[in-house]
Structures are given as structure tokens and as C-alpha cells.
Write a structure and sequence with these properties.
CATH superfamily of the largest domain: CHASE domain
CATH topology of the largest domain: Beta-Lactamase
Structural class: alpha+beta
Number of helices: 14
Radius of gyration: 30 Å
Distance between the termini: 70 Å
Shape: flat
Strand content: 15-25%
Number of strands: 18
Oligomer: single chain
Number of domains: 2
Largest sheet: 5 strands, antiparallel
């Protein structure tokens, strides 16, 4: 009796296992598609947010230039600085960098004369305004047809621009406008835009207060953006087109909602089923909600077809049971690996964001220091502009190497010299270096790249390279270790003149945590910092893998 029912039992068991295997295939395929979508969607949003942060840092550098040096009566220093940046080639999405001084109403003729001197252009201020102040565009680079249209435009006369300028003056930091139509929109490719303002206080120019309780200032530097170009630049660095993704961005500040960007044909798929990711990002004080969607397509149908085929084969061939079980286990392992990878990626991303925030703060402080030192040592404006631009470009190159490079084996000496040159510029030759040839693999190269950059930056700000009479020397050697074949020992000495300050490089901030995370946590070494009558000594010891 039991034997007669065995075919039915085997049929039922095989069919059940086949259905389980089919579901596992379908589910794992769907999870993999979701994971791929999330990675690309996050890349799109991160590219958009980091692109604006990069432009804000650029605006801060411009403010440092304007506050540090006198702009001549033709704006030459400002024009040359912007030209050296190469906005069109290196900063996609930005329309231009400009300078807009504040004039008390009634002094329009002085502003118009400045436009005449700067661009040899007869231009009346516009539009008419009843405000107490006029903030016209007097310098805007690069000097193309679009930007020439904006010269003489009184930005204080328009409410959205005026609100952003008041916020920047109040908070003393860059502030973005609500979405506006830029004056530069003169052709058929019309886009919404926005501007970011940073307050300035130029030398030898009368200051004003746009409100009684605000700090005095002389005007604003600003960056103008076309929102469509900014999004297209962020999308071009991802696989959004290949995966069929669509993007919509809304400005949702102060309980209002404005659609500022939509991918072509977005509305055709907005209400359909599929994958969706929504995140809110801070754009210089304004909240932007970015939605990325992937409409349901034939790929899910194909996954279902594959699952049904798996079940059918399991139904027809009992021998496929072992293969289906192996596939299921493999899918589970892949899912677990994907989960672990996602967790590790999230941790790495958090560390990277912290590092980026820390570097941006260091960069702004360093730009101010370089601007002051370069101004003191320069004989004239062209010499200052050239030196300052070279140092600013060296900083940008160092940021790009540390954020994107994937080094293979590298010489420790070459890595050290490269980092010192990127941070100190020509002054790197003043550092005394001594040590043998040491070859580092990718892991060690990345760790030491971050550590050396952090120590060099700290030295430029506070230590051995912060003054004209200070000095540095760096020595390294190979030494034998009890339980390992060899190790790398580094002694970093910074000599200070004048009163010793033991707070130099001794804080417990993110920089110190970053050094310990790489030397102690990543490489299993030790990091020690001490002070003597001459200055500071940093000792680093790490075991070498070979």
C-alpha cells in the first residue's frame, strides 16, 4: 500500500521542493536588483550633494581672495583667479562666479561706472527698486554671452535673492536662494536655477549694515547654478541611463514644495510600480528631496520565468533536487555576503563622509592661511594671483588623489614627498627627509596617505611649517621585530620657535581618531606624540607584511 503511494509521495515532495527553490531564485534575484538600484541611487544623490559642497568650498576660497587682496579698477585679479580655476572644464553645473558690492540707494552712477571700467560696457542698473540698498552684479566670470546679460542686475530687488543675501549676512556663511529663473536664461534651453551667496568685507571699502543687528559688510561673492546642468553632471558619473532610472528633485524648504528638476519622461513612470528611493539633502541651507525610480520592466518577468523553469525541472527530474538545494544555499550565502558588504560599505561611507567634512574644514582654514602668507610675500597682484592659484590647485589635486585613487605598490619615500609637495608646495623642499627604500602595498599606501596628509596639514596650520623660522625633519628605517621579520619605524620632528604650545596636534578630534584608526586599527602598529624643549616628536611603528 505504502509502495503504491510512493510515486505520489515523491511527486508531491519533489514538487514542493521545486516550488521552494523557484521562490528562492525569484526572491534572491529581486533582492540583487534592489541592492544594485540602491547603490546607483545613492551614488546619484551623493554626487549631487557633494558637487554643491565642492562649489561651496570654491565660493569660500573666492571669498578669501576678495577679503585678502585689493581688486583693481578693472577687476583683473578676480578675473584671472576665476580663469585659472577652469570652471567650464572642472566644475560642471556652475554658471559663473561673481562679485556684487552693496550700494546705498542713490549711488547707482558709481555702480554703472564700475561696470564700464570692468567690461567697457554701458549698462544701467535694472530693475527699478524701492529698497534702501542696491546689490548689482559688477563682476561675473567667465565673461560669456549668458553672464554679460546679468551685469548690472540688482539682485536685492528680487525677493528670493534678497532673502538669501539677508540670511548669508545674518549667519555669516554661504546661503542658497529658492529656485529662481536666472537672468542668464537667454536661449531656448530654459532651466530653473539658484544662487549661493557668501558675505565679504573688502579692504579699503566702506562697510554697511543691511540690518541694525547684522555684522558690517561690503557685499557678496556668489555662484550661479543651472539646476538642470547640475543634475546632468551628477547623473553622467553613474549608471543611471544603463539601468533606466528617472530622477525628480523638489525644493521643500519652509513648508513649500517646488519641482526643480525632472528626468525626461519621468511623469510617464512616476505613478507606476517599481523600485523607488527618496532622500532629503542639504543644499547650502535649503532642503532638497531627491527621488530616484526604476519602473517595473521585463526583467522581473524574466526572473519569474526562470523561477517557473526551475520548478518545472524539479518536477520532471528528481535529480535536480540536489542542484536546487545547492542553488538555494548559494543564494542564501550571497544574500548574507551582500548584507555584510552593505554594512561594511555603510561604515566605509560614514568614515569617508567624516573625512571629507574634516578635510573641507581644514581646507578653508588652510586657504585663509595661504592667502595671508602669500599676500605678505608677494610684491604685486599678478605674483599673488599666480602663487595663490597654484597652491589652491595643489590642494584640489591632493583631495582628488585621496578620494579616488586606488594605489598599487608604492614607495614610502615617493608617497611622503608627494604628500608634502601637495600640502606645502615649494616649501616642501625645506623638510629634511632621510630613510631607505620601502615598498608598500595598496592597504599600507592608503593608510599612510591619510596619516601623512593629516600630519602635514596640522604642521602647516600649527607646527613646524606654520612659521618662517620653524623647521621639520622626517626619518624612517627598517627594524627587526621579535615575532615578525621586519617593521617600519618613522620619527617625525617639528621644531618650534618662541613659546612652546603643547596643544599643537594634541587634540582628540577627528584627525587624531583618523590617525589611530589607520596606524593602530588598520595596520596593527603604534602611534606616539610627545614634546620637548625644541618642539614636537611623533613616533610611528608598524609591522610590514613582507
Amino acid at each position: 500500500m505504502m509502495r503504491n503511494r510512493l510515486p505520489t509521495i515523491l511527486f508531491s515532495v519533489t514538487m514542493l521542493l521545486g516550488l521552494v527553490a523557484a521562490y528562492a531564485v525569484f526572491n534572491s534575484t529581486r533582492q540583487a536588483e534592489r541592492a544594485s538600484f540602491d547603490i546607483v541611487a545613492d551614488d546619484i544623490i551623493d554626487n549631487l550633494e557633494e558637487g554643491v559642497k565642492q562649489h561651496v568650498a570654491l565660493l569660500s576660497a573666492t571669498r578669501s581672495l576678495v577679503n585678502t587682496v585689493d581688486i583693481d579698477d578693472k577687476g583683473s585679479g578676480f578675473k584671472e583667479f576665476v580663469a585659472d580655476l577652469g570652471l567650464v572644464e572642472n566644475y560642471r553645473g556652475i554658471q559663473g562666479l561673481g562679485l556684487a558690492p552693496i550700494f546705498v540707494a542713490g549711488n547707482e552712477l558709481a555702480a554703472e561706472n564700475e561696470i564700464k571700467r570692468n567690461y567697457n560696457l554701458e549698462r544701467k542698473l535694472y530693475p527699478e527698486s524701492d529698497e534702501s540698498f542696491r546689490v548689482p552684479v559688477l563682476l561675473l566670470e567667465p565673461n560669456d554671452e549668458r553672464n554679460q546679460k546679468a551685469l548690472g542686475y540688482d539682485m536685492f530687488a528680487e525677493s528670493n535673492r534678497r532673502d538669501a543675501m539677508i540670511a548669508a549676512a545674518r549667519d555669516r556663511r554661504p546661503s542658497a536662494t529658492a529656485p529662481v529663473r536666472l537672468v542668464q536664461e537667454i536661449d531656448s534651453d530654459q532651466q530653473l536655477g539658484f544662487l549661493i551667496y557668501a558675505p565679504i568685507k573688502q579692504k579699503n571699502i566702506d562697510v554697511v549694515r543691511i540690518a541694525n543687528n547684522y555684522q558690517p559688510l561690503t557685499g557678496f561673492v556668489f555662484a550661479a547654478f543651472r539646476i538642470g546642468d547640475l543634475h546632468n553632471a551628477a547623473l553622467s558619473r553613474t549608471l543611471s541611463s544603463a539601468l533606466g532610472l528617472y530622477v525628480q528633485t523638489k525644493d521643500k524648504t519652509d513648508n513649500s514644495e517646488t519641482v526643480v528638476f525632472q528626468s525626461k519622461n519621468y511623469e510617464n513612470y512616476a505613478d507606476k510600480s517599481g523600485l523607488r528611493s527618496v532622500k532629503t539633502i542639504n543644499m547650502a541651507g535649503r532642503a532638497w528631496e531627491v527621488e530616484v525610480i526604476k519602473p517595473a520592466s521585463g526583467s522581473l518577468d524574466n526572473s519569474l520565468l526562470y523561477a517557473l523553469m526551475t520548478g518545472l525541472l524539479s518536477f520532471l527530474f528528481a535529480g535536480a533536487l540536489a542542484s536546487s538545494s545547492k542553488l538555494q544555499l548559494s543564494s542564501l550565502r550571497n544574500s548574507e555576503e551582500l548584507r555584510l558588504y552593505s554594512e561594511k560599505a555603510a561604515q566605509d561611507k560614514d568614515l569617508m563622509l567624516q573625512e571629507m567634512k574634516h578635510r573641507i574644514k581644514n581646507s578653508i582654514a588652510r586657504i585663509n592661511s595661504i592667502a595671508r602668507q602669500t599676500a605678505r610675500s608677494s610684491n604685486d597682484l599678478p605674483e599673488f594671483t599666480k602663487s595663490f592659484s597654484e597652491r589652491l590647485q595643489a590642494m584640489a589635486t591632493a583631495q582628488d588623489v585621496l578620494a579616488r585613487s586606488k594605489w598599487q605598490r608604492a614607495s614610502f619615500g615617493d608617497l611622503l614627498r608627494s604628500e608634502l609637495e601637495q600640502v606645502f608646495g615649494k616649501n616642501a623642499n625645506e623638510v629634511k627627509l632621510s630613510g631607505p627604500e620601502v615598498s608598500l602595498d595598496e592597504k599600507y599606501s592608503q593608510a599612510f596617505g591619510l596619516v601623512l596628509h593629516e600630519l602635514a596639514t596640522n604642521s602647516l596650520k600649527y607646527g613646524g611649517m606654520s612659521g618662517t623660522e620653524n623647521a621639520m625633519q622626517i626619518n624612517w628605517k627598517i627594524k627587526k621585530l621579535p615575532k615578525r621579520k621586519r617593521g617600519l619605524s618613522i620619527v617625525w620632528r617639528e621644531n618650534f620657535t618662541g613659546e612652546k604650545t603643547e596643544t599643537v596636534s594634541a587634540g582628540g578630534g577627528f584627525g587624531t581618531k583618523l590617525i589611530n584608526a589607520n596606524i593602530v586599527g588598520e595596520l596593527g602598529g603604534s602611534f606616539d606624540r610627545s614634546f620637548d624643549e625644541k618642539g614636537m616628536i611623533v613616533k610611528i611603528d608598524v609591522p610590514l607584511t613582507q
